[in-house]
Hints:
The complex is a heterodimer of chains A (240) and B (551). Chain A has two domains: 3-77, Ubiquitin-like (UB roll); 83-233, Alpha-Beta Plaits, CATH 3.30.70.20. Chain A is an alpha+beta fold and 240 residues long. In chain A, the strands form three sheets. Chain A has a five-stranded mixed β-sheet, with helices on one face. A three-stranded antiparallel β-sheet of chain A has the order 6-7-10. Chain A is built from six helices and ten strands, in the order E-E-H-E-E-E-H-H-E-E-H-E-E-H-E-H. Chain B is of the alpha/beta class. Chain B has four domains: 21-111, Glutaredoxin (3-Layer(aba) Sandwich), CATH 3.40.30.10; 143-345, NADH-ubiquinone oxidoreductase 51kDa subunit (Rossmann fold, 3-Layer(aba) Sandwich); 359-438, Roll (Ubiquitin-like (UB roll)), CATH 3.10.20; 444-549, NADH-ubiquinone oxidoreductase 51kDa subunit, iron-sulphur binding domain (de novo design (two linked rop proteins)). Chain B is built from 23 helices and 14 strands. Chain B has helices at 6-18, 31-34, 38-51, 93-101, 114-117, 135-140, 145-153, 156-166, 178-187, 208-215, 217-231, 245-260, 291-298, 327-339, 341-345, 378-385, 419-424, 443-457, 463-480, 486-502, 506-510, 513-527, 542-550, and strands at 23-28, 58-63, 75-78, 82-84, 108-109, 194-199, 235-240, 276-281, 322-326, 355-362, 368-373, 395-400, 406-409, 433-438. In chain B, the strands form three sheets. Chain B has a five-stranded mixed β-sheet, covered by helices on one side. In chain B, strands 11-10-14-12-13 form a five-stranded mixed β-sheet. A four-stranded parallel β-sheet of chain B has the order 8-7-6-9, sandwiched between helices. Chain B starts with 5 loop residues before the first helix and ends with a helix. Chain A binds chain B through residues 44-48, 51, 59-60, 62, 65-66, 82-84, 86-88, 90-92, 94-95, 119-126, 128, 149-150, 152, 168-169, 171-176, and chain B through 285, 287, 302, 306-307, 309, 455-464, 466-471, 474, 491, 494-495, 498, 501-504, 538-541, 543-544. The complex binds flavin mononucleotide, iron/sulfur cluster (2 copies) and FE2/S2 (inorganic) cluster (FES). One iron/sulfur cluster (SF4) binds next to helix 19 and helix 21 of chain B.
Amino acid sequence: MAAKTLTINGKQISAEEGATILQAAEEAGVKIPTLCHLDGVYDVGACRLCLVEVTGVPKLLPACTTKVSEGMEIKTDSEQLQKYRRLTLELLFAERNHVCAVCVANGHCELQTLAYSQGMDHVRYDYCFPKWGVDNTHRLFGMDHNRCILCTRCVRVCWHIEGAGTKNVAGRGSKAKIITDLNMPWGESGSCTNCGKCVQSCPTGALFYKGSTVAEMERDRSRLEFIVTAREKKLWVASD
Amino acid sequence: MDGNMISNLIQIKEQELAARKKIVLRCCMAAGCMSLDAKGVREQLEKAVAEAGLQNEVEVRGVGCMRLCCEGPLVAADPQNTLNIKVTTKNAPSIIAALRDGKTEVSRTDPNSSFFTKQLSIVLANSGVINPERIESYIAADGYHALHEVLHEMTPREAVEALVKSGLRGRGGAGFPTGLKWGTVAKSPGAKKYVICNADEGDPGAFMDRSVLESDPHAVLEGMAIAAYAVGADQGFIYVRAEYPLAIARLQIAIKQAKQLGLLGSGIFESPFNFNVDIRIGAGAFVCGEETALMASVEGKRGTPRPRPPFPAESGLWGSPTLINNVETFANVPPIYRNGADWFAGIGTEKSKGTKVFALAGKIRNTGLIEVPMGTPLRVIVEDMGGGAPDGGKIKAIQTGGPSGGCIPAQYLDTPVDYESLGKLGSIMGSGGMIVMDDTTNMVEIARFFMEFCMDESCGKCVPCRAGTVQMHHLLNNIANRRATARDLAKLEELCDMVKHTSLCGLGQTAPNPVLSTLRFFRNEYEELLQPDPFGPPSNGEVKKQTAAMH
Ligand SMILES: Cc1cc2nc3c(=O)[nH]c(=O)nc-3n(C[C@H](O)[C@H](O)[C@H](O)COP(=O)(O)O)c2cc1C
Ligand code: SF4
Ligand code: SF4
Ligand code: FES
């Protein structure tokens, strides 16, 4: 495959044709914040944290879905982008009930980590305090809608890695909600294979193993990676 | 008789013209008048004609929209050139009586008033004239002749070039050059290609596309067929919003009739060209009008937008190159080929060619549908055609572009309506909604109304739009209720900027426009509502910077 040369933050790099800006940046050691992206499943460009500036393009482009092209000049860390990222995180924290101190994912949460790394030290918008419930009907897993950021990672792993098609999005706007099957309690789902891939994929404390308590919910992404590598490269290797 | 011959078309046209009666009473059968029992009026007219024994002289014809919707039901008489307004089932028979003695109980309006004479009908040329439920009526108005000519006289490439030359731009909102789009789809490699007509018309107050579909459905079908030939597609979809049952019914009739005459289907006009059209009923969300969401919906998926590129022209329906245009865009196509690209390019302004249909509404005397050449000053539309604000009110602003647009204050009334001029004033042409506001209108209210619309219609996929519209709406609420400070206004402006630049699709990217444009011209109305601020300036990310600076 042909290689493309481009610059990221002034640094000249090369990338494989067909690679996304995110992949190219990662390879070049440039960290771009992401939230809806998950290695192994297709990207949807929904969280908008990975937006970058490309010279000559008037719009900001999501690094996760934009393919590299020859001579591209990319900027990932301008003042403007950093500000937008903080605002995006602020909006997420105000949207549902992210009370880290009592969350199973405290300390292992991607949303929390991003807030630290991006310098989001205040939420200036009024908290919405919506009344979302917790679905504890499943034998092994729980889902706390209050902590869901609608990244749809769980939906994508469920459909495209597991192939069960249990998780879905219903409703729209701020009323959008992750559902199981035709909006039934998870425990009554006929299609759920109890594989737990959604739990592994979730960036926050929204999906968890039952029995985990505050700060205990850690994820093992290598389990997802193992399957994806096996399927795509026909290699049955675990990255330890 | 061979169903595919041009001679057949000519024959139909001649028969139709020969059967024409001396007097034609045109009764509006579009949704506006239908809601006021236009159907009953038509029945009464038919009955009165029969009773007067005038069946051989008078034709009572159901037609599409006659523009002046606020005065409906409308009945026009030819060749008397009278326009009867607010006709009821009771007084309808007196229209027949008037044919004899000229006396009538029914109110009339002057068909030579500015509201009508300043219009230039290209898209609406057949609207209010032909019977939309009879293909013969369309053929008599030279319908499907352009398709025949294109199939036999032009290569697909020449067809695209003609459209480029016409300068037509998309009427669905963004004004993208239509010829360029056709050319891209034509050049995209792929054995299977699709043509989609976007009839999801979701802007509050807009009904241009509905009227076109109800009044002249064949024009849209013919435009789609020409497009399909030009880009190399053989399947078309019309995505109509479910709230338009009459438009859907007329489209179904039109498709059936066109198939019967061999104008849709296989081997159209004895050429190798095949084209079929299917209707898809909208899924009931505003965002389904966005092209990538619309395509997902046609595929049977949840109607949410996806990032572009790839654009539909390269990868659209089921991954195939897809041409997607608006109803009005397609309706412009047959006249362009019938009269020539140069004719079309001679109308309008340098960069905006042809006409634009607007749904005129709000605080204005004459509301209804108007079609004017691009570049017509707003003042002509609002004052001459619209008759100004009713009850001696003063016009304050004009809203164009619906929830994606902005408010143009009265001091800019001399602005010509074209894509660039409206854009410069922070509004957009949009799909054609035009709402006139008088001096009783509260601009913060307007901004809040449109923000609520965007908040409710956000699909929820991307964070800035889903959560940002909620916060912007909340801030607007606080401002309107005198619970906000200058700091809140600053937060609102900051969010407007962020949502505009970071949202995934056009809905989020344009949702802040009504706020930004009212802030630009009516900032004082916001500031008057602000309360004193007991706290300091906003801070997010500031603390870190300050502490860093201290060390
Ligand atoms: C939220 C949203 C809603 C839209 N709704 C419509 C619509 O109802 N009708 C329409 O023709 N275009 C609509 N559009 C524009 C379409 O995405 C697309 O640009 C258009 O159909 C292209 O046709 P044109 O080039 O003929 O204008 C909408 C866009 C957005 C972002
Ligand atoms: S449950 Fe978790 S993975 Fe699923 S959408 Fe919500 S935050 Fe994302
Ligand atoms: S901008 Fe709004 S409507 Fe568009 S994808 Fe994002 S959430 Fe959905
Ligand atoms: S990671 Fe690219 S938009 Fe979320």
